[in-house]
Specification:
Strand 4 and strand 5 form a beta hairpin. The termini are close together. The strands form 3 sheets. A 7-stranded parallel beta sheet has the order 3-13-12-9-8-7-6, covered by helices on one side. It has a 4-stranded antiparallel beta sheet with strand order 4-5-11-10. By secondary structure, it is an alpha/beta fold. It is built from 10 helices and 13 strands.
Protein backbone atom coordinates (compact mmCIF):
# COMPACT_ATOMS: atom_id res chain seq x y z
CA UNK A 1 0.00 0.00 0.00
CA UNK A 2 1.80 3.09 -1.28
CA UNK A 3 0.72 6.44 0.18
CA UNK A 4 2.49 9.73 -0.54
CA UNK A 5 5.16 7.76 -2.41
CA UNK A 6 5.92 5.72 0.71
CA UNK A 7 5.46 1.96 0.81
CA UNK A 8 3.55 1.12 3.99
CA UNK A 9 3.57 -2.57 3.19
CA UNK A 10 0.98 -5.26 2.65
CA UNK A 11 0.09 -6.07 6.25
CA UNK A 12 -0.37 -3.80 9.24
CA UNK A 13 -0.83 -4.76 12.85
CA UNK A 14 -4.03 -3.46 14.37
CA UNK A 15 -3.61 -0.36 16.50
CA UNK A 16 -2.70 -1.43 20.00
CA UNK A 17 -1.53 -4.92 19.08
CA UNK A 18 2.02 -4.04 20.14
CA UNK A 19 1.38 -1.05 22.39
CA UNK A 20 2.30 2.58 21.81
CA UNK A 21 5.89 2.04 20.68
CA UNK A 22 6.06 -1.61 19.65
CA UNK A 23 7.04 -2.61 23.18
CA UNK A 24 4.45 -5.39 23.20
CA UNK A 25 2.77 -6.98 26.21
CA UNK A 26 3.85 -9.54 28.81
CA UNK A 27 1.85 -12.33 27.17
CA UNK A 28 3.89 -11.85 23.96
CA UNK A 29 6.93 -13.19 25.83
CA UNK A 30 4.90 -16.22 26.87
CA UNK A 31 3.79 -16.90 23.28
CA UNK A 32 7.12 -16.19 21.58
CA UNK A 33 8.51 -19.73 22.09
CA UNK A 34 5.33 -21.01 20.42
CA UNK A 35 5.98 -18.99 17.27
CA UNK A 36 4.61 -15.48 17.84
CA UNK A 37 6.64 -13.31 15.47
CA UNK A 38 5.70 -9.93 13.96
CA UNK A 39 8.56 -9.69 11.49
CA UNK A 40 7.48 -8.38 8.07
CA UNK A 41 4.56 -6.19 9.20
CA UNK A 42 3.97 -2.42 9.41
CA UNK A 43 3.66 -1.10 12.95
CA UNK A 44 0.56 0.84 14.02
CA UNK A 45 0.68 2.46 17.45
CA UNK A 46 -2.06 2.06 20.04
CA UNK A 47 -4.64 4.80 19.61
CA UNK A 48 -3.88 7.87 21.67
CA UNK A 49 -6.13 10.70 22.72
CA UNK A 50 -5.00 14.31 23.06
CA UNK A 51 -5.06 14.29 26.86
CA UNK A 52 -4.34 11.47 29.32
CA UNK A 53 -7.26 9.08 29.52
CA UNK A 54 -7.93 6.61 32.30
CA UNK A 55 -10.15 4.28 30.28
CA UNK A 56 -10.79 0.83 31.75
CA UNK A 57 -7.28 -0.60 31.57
CA UNK A 58 -5.18 0.15 34.68
CA UNK A 59 -1.65 1.23 33.71
CA UNK A 60 1.60 1.24 35.63
CA UNK A 61 3.32 4.47 36.60
CA UNK A 62 5.14 4.57 33.23
CA UNK A 63 1.76 5.39 31.68
CA UNK A 64 1.85 2.68 29.02
CA UNK A 65 2.27 -0.76 30.62
CA UNK A 66 -0.84 -2.65 31.81
CA UNK A 67 -0.82 -3.39 35.53
CA UNK A 68 -2.48 -6.80 35.11
CA UNK A 69 -1.48 -9.80 33.00
CA UNK A 70 -5.15 -10.64 32.49
CA UNK A 71 -7.09 -7.34 32.62
CA UNK A 72 -10.75 -7.39 33.60
CA UNK A 73 -11.63 -5.27 30.54
CA UNK A 74 -10.54 -7.97 28.07
CA UNK A 75 -12.26 -11.32 27.62
CA UNK A 76 -10.71 -13.99 25.41
CA UNK A 77 -12.60 -16.99 24.01
CA UNK A 78 -10.01 -19.16 22.28
CA UNK A 79 -12.33 -21.89 21.02
CA UNK A 80 -14.75 -19.40 19.49
CA UNK A 81 -11.93 -17.30 18.06
CA UNK A 82 -13.27 -14.16 19.72
CA UNK A 83 -11.90 -11.30 21.80
CA UNK A 84 -14.13 -8.81 23.60
CA UNK A 85 -12.54 -5.66 24.95
CA UNK A 86 -13.57 -2.49 26.74
CA UNK A 87 -10.10 -0.95 27.14
CA UNK A 88 -11.49 2.50 26.43
CA UNK A 89 -8.31 4.08 24.99
CA UNK A 90 -6.37 4.12 28.25
CA UNK A 91 -3.17 6.08 27.79
CA UNK A 92 -0.94 8.96 28.85
CA UNK A 93 -1.98 11.40 26.12
CA UNK A 94 -0.29 12.60 22.94
CA UNK A 95 2.13 15.11 24.50
CA UNK A 96 3.64 12.43 26.74
CA UNK A 97 4.06 10.05 23.78
CA UNK A 98 5.67 12.61 21.47
CA UNK A 99 8.03 13.75 24.22
CA UNK A 100 9.04 10.15 24.98
CA UNK A 101 10.98 10.11 21.70
CA UNK A 102 10.57 6.47 20.76
CA UNK A 103 8.34 7.20 17.78
CA UNK A 104 11.05 9.43 16.36
CA UNK A 105 13.58 6.57 16.52
CA UNK A 106 11.56 4.06 14.49
CA UNK A 107 13.42 3.33 11.25
CA UNK A 108 10.63 1.90 9.06
CA UNK A 109 7.39 3.55 7.83
CA UNK A 110 4.63 3.24 10.43
CA UNK A 111 1.36 4.74 11.62
CA UNK A 112 0.41 6.68 14.70
CA UNK A 113 -3.26 6.38 15.68
CA UNK A 114 -5.34 9.21 17.17
CA UNK A 115 -8.94 9.70 18.24
CA UNK A 116 -10.78 12.84 19.32
CA UNK A 117 -13.20 11.89 22.10
CA UNK A 118 -14.91 15.10 23.21
CA UNK A 119 -18.66 15.21 23.94
CA UNK A 120 -19.40 17.59 21.05
CA UNK A 121 -18.08 18.17 17.55
CA UNK A 122 -16.68 21.54 18.59
CA UNK A 123 -14.60 19.91 21.35
CA UNK A 124 -13.46 17.07 19.09
CA UNK A 125 -12.45 19.59 16.42
CA UNK A 126 -10.36 21.52 18.94
CA UNK A 127 -8.76 18.27 20.07
CA UNK A 128 -7.83 17.52 16.46
CA UNK A 129 -6.33 20.99 16.04
CA UNK A 130 -4.20 20.69 19.16
CA UNK A 131 -3.08 17.19 18.22
CA UNK A 132 -2.12 18.42 14.74
CA UNK A 133 -0.10 21.29 16.25
CA UNK A 134 1.79 18.78 18.41
CA UNK A 135 2.40 16.51 15.44
CA UNK A 136 3.72 19.42 13.35
CA UNK A 137 6.14 20.35 16.14
CA UNK A 138 7.68 16.89 16.39
CA UNK A 139 7.38 15.69 12.78
CA UNK A 140 10.80 17.02 11.62
CA UNK A 141 12.52 14.81 14.21
CA UNK A 142 11.04 11.54 12.89
CA UNK A 143 13.56 9.14 11.34
CA UNK A 144 11.06 7.32 9.10
CA UNK A 145 7.99 8.29 7.08
CA UNK A 146 4.90 8.25 9.27
CA UNK A 147 1.19 8.17 8.54
CA UNK A 148 -1.77 8.89 10.78
CA UNK A 149 -4.64 6.52 11.34
CA UNK A 150 -7.58 8.60 12.58
CA UNK A 151 -9.86 6.45 14.70
CA UNK A 152 -13.51 7.38 14.17
CA UNK A 153 -15.08 4.17 15.43
CA UNK A 154 -13.89 2.91 18.82
CA UNK A 155 -17.07 1.41 20.37
CA UNK A 156 -15.69 1.87 23.87
CA UNK A 157 -15.77 5.64 23.42
CA UNK A 158 -19.07 5.65 21.50
CA UNK A 159 -18.41 8.98 19.77
CA UNK A 160 -19.56 7.70 16.38
CA UNK A 161 -22.70 6.22 17.91
CA UNK A 162 -23.73 9.70 19.03
CA UNK A 163 -23.83 10.90 15.41
CA UNK A 164 -26.86 9.06 13.96
CA UNK A 165 -27.09 11.20 10.82
CA UNK A 166 -24.70 9.75 8.20
CA UNK A 167 -24.37 13.13 6.47
CA UNK A 168 -23.27 14.83 9.70
CA UNK A 169 -20.93 11.92 10.43
CA UNK A 170 -19.22 12.33 7.06
CA UNK A 171 -18.99 16.11 7.47
CA UNK A 172 -17.26 15.74 10.84
CA UNK A 173 -14.76 13.22 9.52
CA UNK A 174 -13.91 15.43 6.56
CA UNK A 175 -13.52 18.49 8.79
CA UNK A 176 -11.05 16.66 11.04
CA UNK A 177 -9.15 15.29 8.04
CA UNK A 178 -8.90 18.81 6.66
CA UNK A 179 -7.59 20.46 9.82
CA UNK A 180 -4.99 17.77 10.52
CA UNK A 181 -3.80 17.80 6.91
CA UNK A 182 -3.29 21.58 7.06
CA UNK A 183 -0.78 21.15 9.89
CA UNK A 184 0.78 17.78 9.08
CA UNK A 185 0.89 16.91 5.35
CA UNK A 186 1.26 13.18 5.90
CA UNK A 187 -0.79 10.16 4.77
CA UNK A 188 -4.15 10.13 6.55
CA UNK A 189 -6.16 6.93 6.93
CA UNK A 190 -9.54 7.10 8.71
CA UNK A 191 -10.36 3.98 10.70
CA UNK A 192 -14.03 3.02 10.56
CA UNK A 193 -16.00 -0.14 11.19
CA UNK A 194 -18.53 -2.11 9.19
CA UNK A 195 -21.38 -0.21 10.83
CA UNK A 196 -20.28 2.83 8.83
CA UNK A 197 -22.62 3.05 5.83
CA UNK A 198 -20.84 2.62 2.52
CA UNK A 199 -22.25 5.96 1.33
CA UNK A 200 -20.55 7.68 4.29
CA UNK A 201 -17.29 5.91 3.51
CA UNK A 202 -17.60 6.95 -0.12
CA UNK A 203 -17.95 10.61 0.83
CA UNK A 204 -14.96 10.39 3.16
CA UNK A 205 -12.89 8.61 0.50
CA UNK A 206 -13.73 11.34 -2.00
CA UNK A 207 -12.06 13.92 0.22
CA UNK A 208 -8.61 14.90 -1.11
CA UNK A 209 -7.20 14.66 2.42
CA UNK A 210 -8.20 11.00 2.75
CA UNK A 211 -5.43 8.76 1.42
CA UNK A 212 -6.84 5.36 2.42
CA UNK A 213 -9.53 3.73 4.54
CA UNK A 214 -9.03 1.23 7.36
CA UNK A 215 -11.91 -1.15 8.13
CA UNK A 216 -12.92 -2.62 10.50
CA UNK A 217 -12.65 -1.52 14.07
CA UNK A 218 -14.28 -3.76 16.67
CA UNK A 219 -18.07 -4.16 16.65
CA UNK A 220 -20.12 -2.92 19.63
CA UNK A 221 -21.71 -5.68 21.67
CA UNK A 222 -25.09 -6.65 20.24
CA UNK A 223 -24.65 -5.02 16.82
CA UNK A 224 -25.55 -6.86 13.60
CA UNK A 225 -27.53 -9.62 15.38
CA UNK A 226 -28.58 -11.05 12.01
CA UNK A 227 -24.91 -11.74 11.24
CA UNK A 228 -23.32 -12.31 14.64
CA UNK A 229 -24.54 -14.99 17.04
CA UNK A 230 -24.46 -13.22 20.39
CA UNK A 231 -25.17 -15.10 23.63
CA UNK A 232 -28.72 -16.24 24.36
CA UNK A 233 -29.09 -13.80 27.23
CA UNK A 234 -27.87 -10.88 25.17
CA UNK A 235 -25.90 -9.64 28.18
CA UNK A 236 -22.26 -8.78 27.61
CA UNK A 237 -19.68 -10.12 30.08
CA UNK A 238 -18.36 -6.54 29.97
CA UNK A 239 -21.76 -4.93 30.53
CA UNK A 240 -20.38 -3.20 33.63
CA UNK A 241 -17.90 -1.44 31.34
CA UNK A 242 -20.37 -0.48 28.64
CA UNK A 243 -20.50 -3.76 26.69
CA UNK A 244 -17.20 -3.71 24.86
CA UNK A 245 -16.25 -4.32 21.25
CA UNK A 246 -15.94 -7.69 19.54
CA UNK A 247 -13.10 -8.78 17.29
CA UNK A 248 -12.12 -12.11 15.84
CA UNK A 249 -13.60 -14.86 13.69
CA UNK A 250 -17.18 -13.52 13.22
CA UNK A 251 -15.89 -10.38 11.51
CA UNK A 252 -14.03 -11.90 8.56
CA UNK A 253 -16.92 -12.44 6.14
CA UNK A 254 -18.68 -9.27 7.33
CA UNK A 255 -15.59 -7.19 6.53
CA UNK A 256 -15.14 -8.94 3.19
CA UNK A 257 -18.75 -8.16 2.26
CA UNK A 258 -18.31 -4.52 3.29
CA UNK A 259 -15.18 -4.14 1.15
CA UNK A 260 -16.93 -5.71 -1.84
CA UNK A 261 -19.86 -3.30 -1.45
CA UNK A 262 -17.46 -0.38 -1.11
CA UNK A 263 -15.83 -1.26 -4.41
CA UNK A 264 -19.21 -1.71 -6.08
CA UNK A 265 -20.17 1.76 -4.81
CA UNK A 266 -17.14 3.21 -6.58
CA UNK A 267 -14.65 3.67 -3.74
CA UNK A 268 -11.23 3.62 -5.36
CA UNK A 269 -8.99 4.74 -2.50
CA UNK A 270 -6.81 2.01 -0.94
CA UNK A 271 -8.57 -0.06 1.70
CA UNK A 272 -6.70 -1.69 4.55
CA UNK A 273 -9.03 -4.46 5.72
CA UNK A 274 -8.88 -6.53 8.87
CA UNK A 275 -11.06 -8.47 11.23
CA UNK A 276 -11.11 -12.18 11.91
CA UNK A 277 -7.81 -13.05 10.23
CA UNK A 278 -6.83 -16.12 12.22
CA UNK A 279 -5.10 -18.17 9.51
CA UNK A 280 -3.13 -17.55 6.29
CA UNK A 281 -6.17 -18.54 4.19
CA UNK A 282 -8.18 -15.72 5.77
CA UNK A 283 -5.85 -13.23 4.06
CA UNK A 284 -7.02 -14.59 0.71
CA UNK A 285 -10.64 -13.85 1.64
CA UNK A 286 -9.97 -10.13 2.07
CA UNK A 287 -7.65 -10.02 -0.94
CA UNK A 288 -10.46 -11.57 -2.97
CA UNK A 289 -12.80 -8.84 -1.75
CA UNK A 290 -10.43 -6.26 -3.31
CA UNK A 291 -8.62 -5.04 -0.20
CA UNK A 292 -5.27 -3.38 -0.93
CA UNK A 293 -3.67 -4.57 2.29
CA UNK A 294 -4.73 -6.30 5.49
CA UNK A 295 -4.28 -5.85 9.21
CA UNK A 296 -3.90 -8.48 11.89
CA UNK A 297 -4.65 -8.00 15.56
CA UNK A 298 -6.68 -10.55 17.52
CA UNK A 299 -4.66 -13.41 16.00
CA UNK A 300 -1.79 -12.30 18.25
CA UNK A 301 -3.93 -13.35 21.21
CA UNK A 302 -6.03 -16.13 19.74
CA UNK A 303 -3.63 -17.86 17.34
CA UNK A 304 -0.20 -16.45 18.14
CA UNK A 305 1.63 -19.37 16.56
CA UNK A 306 0.09 -18.48 13.18
CA UNK A 307 1.00 -14.78 13.06
CA UNK A 308 4.29 -15.32 11.25
CA UNK A 309 2.57 -17.45 8.58
CA UNK A 310 -0.24 -14.89 8.21
CA UNK A 311 2.29 -12.10 7.63
CA UNK A 312 4.20 -14.24 5.14
CA UNK A 313 1.01 -15.07 3.24
CA UNK A 314 -0.03 -11.41 3.03
CA UNK A 315 3.35 -10.37 1.69
CA UNK A 316 3.26 -13.21 -0.86
CA UNK A 317 -0.17 -12.58 -2.38
CA UNK A 318 -0.03 -8.78 -2.41
CA UNK A 319 3.58 -8.62 -3.63
CA UNK A 320 2.63 -9.87 -7.09
CA UNK A 321 0.33 -6.95 -7.83
Amino acid sequence: MILHNTDFGHILVGSGTQGFFGEGYPFHKILKPFGLNFEGYTFVAKTTTLRPRKGNLPLKTDGITPEELFPDCIKVYFRKGVVLNAVGLSGPGAKFLFEDGRWQKIKKPFFISFMAVGESFEIRYLEAINFAILFKKYLPSFSAPVGLQINFSCPNVKVGLKIPDPKIQAEEMRAILGIISSYAPIPLMPKINVLTPVEVAKEIASDPNCDALCVSNTIPWGALPHKINWTKTGVSPLAHLGGGGLSGKPLLLIVAEWVLNARKAGIEKPINAGGGILSPDDVDVLKGAAADSVSVSSAAILRGWRVKKIIRRANEIFEGE
